[in-house]
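hiii, so i know i said id send this last week but things got crazy w the move. better late than never?? heres the sequnce for the chain we talked about at the cafe, plus the structure i predicted for it. fair warning i was half asleep when i ran it
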Amino acid sequence: MNSKDIFDFFDAGGLLSRSLSRFEYREGQQLMAQDAFSCFENKSVHAVEAGTGIGKSFAYLVPALDRAFINDEDRTVIATSTINLQKQIVKKDIPALFNTFGKKCNVELAVGRSNYICKRKLKEIYESNALLESVGQGRLAAFMHFAENSETGLLTDFKGFTDKEILSEISSDSDTCRGAQCPFFTKCFYLQAKRRLSNASVIICNHHLLLTDCISRMESEIEYDEEAVLPPFKHLVIDEAHNLEKNATSVFTREFSNIALNRQLEYLHSDARARKMVDSDKNLVDKIAKHTKDLNLVNEVLNSIQTLKMLSDSMNAQISAFLLDNRIMTVHVNKNNIQSLLSAIGTACLNLSTAGKQLTDLLTRLLRKIVNTDETETLINQFSSRLDKLISLINIVDELTHPEKWTEDIYYLENIRRRGGYTATFNIAPISVAPLLKDNLFNKINSVLCTSATLDLNDDFKFFSRQVGLPVDTKPYVKKKYMSPFEYKSHLMLLTPSDSVQYNNEDIPSYKEFLCSSIKSAVLSSGGGALVLFTNATLMNEVFEELQPQISETLGVNCYVQGQMERYNLMETFKMEEDSVLFATNSFWEGVDAPGNTLRLVIITKLPFIMPTDPIFKARSEKIDKDNGGSGFILLSLPEATMKLKQGFGRLMRHAEDKGIVLILDSRISSKGYGPYMLSNLPESYHPDCRLANISDYIEQFLY
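okay and structure toks below
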């Protein structure tokens, strides 16, 4: 296809309209498809905001598939942020386009290695007595049957038990892989998937896998014309690109935890329970010991492992207690508080760092004693991998105790609530991911198309560009915005009661009473079909517990809350029941696609500003305040909240015929000077002046 062919493909009366019975011509989709074609052809970077209803996935898939039909080595990777969009692309969009084109090419979904079953490890667990007591022979037998009959070997495809300990024991892992020496080498699920990926012309993955591939290439100095985590590829589409900066921050953050350290130590020398496993990958020291006569060194290693485990547990307890005593879950560690922090936990950290270095030195000496032969090659590789990971973890703790070596990176402690207690983590995050993405992603790949329904904040994409490192010096940077074709002014009513109550941390009971009263009134007026979005999980659960029996009894509908079941199943259940009500937070602000009457009311309880105590946000905001007299609120907090508000707002209108109400119960949208800025970034809809007493009347009149 050329540019005109692409244009004609999407035109009224074109190939797509003749193939799809429900096709609706959309000029924005047609123009975006031409942009995608131009991006691939001209080796440029494009940022495209495609409003809800544009049909952006078809717009970039058609040029990508067309290139694959012409040259199957002209590979495109499409990275999304949510599993829902991946499923839509793989199961719905691509089959429809194959049918339209009348031909196919190799398209594969790529997931991380740990998502695959390792047949060897599963067989070892099944044939041993380990872990069966907690799982049960029958349930594990069912898993064996699944593995024997599965085509993909993906853990997520098994609908039985989901014990994380068992799943981690049987998942594929590069550290324990025996390569050609494995009896299941030719039948390995992961290697079969890798071979399929190497033959694919289009690969669908998530942001995390794309960024993991990016790190792998960066650390190993591998270009994009060679294989790394992903096969070589020339073109990249980043959908849901508004999440790229957040996901990159997560992937590029280094983390130490007691759990992570003990996991590495377990593989070096595990407890008695794991030693019952047949030919286990654990107890690497025992296996290495068989190839050395220096038993004194082996005993030193074993003693050092036990010492480090004890010190790790002690440090974890001490940091967790320190954070709990100070009633904080996270703390940004900086040069202002490091000395007082080290006076409280510094000795424990220093002891662990010292013991960790002693152990890694001993392990290095032990490794040098082993001659690399065909018999020991796999064992040495496994041992070396564990040693490298152990060194990386110890280095993170070492950095905490040596602030004189600190860079501009963000250092913070976090207390994570887990079953049975707390786990303290020490994290090092980049102050900005923009240089990393610019140098290792945008500059290296032939063409990159970034798209989302929320990229521009009426600022010519300046906020998005600054966050991800655009533009680059090596390629043209093209920015386009296509408005939604939906009739928002007649189909969507926005209510922002001027007398809403502002959140007050000192009087939460009154605020909660206001929320319960307002939500109940709105939901009863709409007859259900509501998504209630929170920014605080604790408050969400408290409001749900109070309102669920009242709403269910009055309307005779089901009320659900996030965490009640797995996210995908929860969303599907909500969509199937036309009048049900869903209380949710975090991830449900986006990726929710419930067209039709199933969702006719979205309630936004609080504007989604990041907590000012969040260590990454706090450090980045302080840097903006410090550099050139900028404002962290104006340049970071406000645009991030506005972008998320746009996402929450976008949950309502999914099809042209959809109709409903967005109710914002945060008085700041009306009373603060930044309110008009936030509202100006939302699609223009019917927005009458109202007060809390009028909510029910407006909702009933608009809907019924």
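btw The mean pLDDT is 90. thought thatd interest u
miss u guys!!
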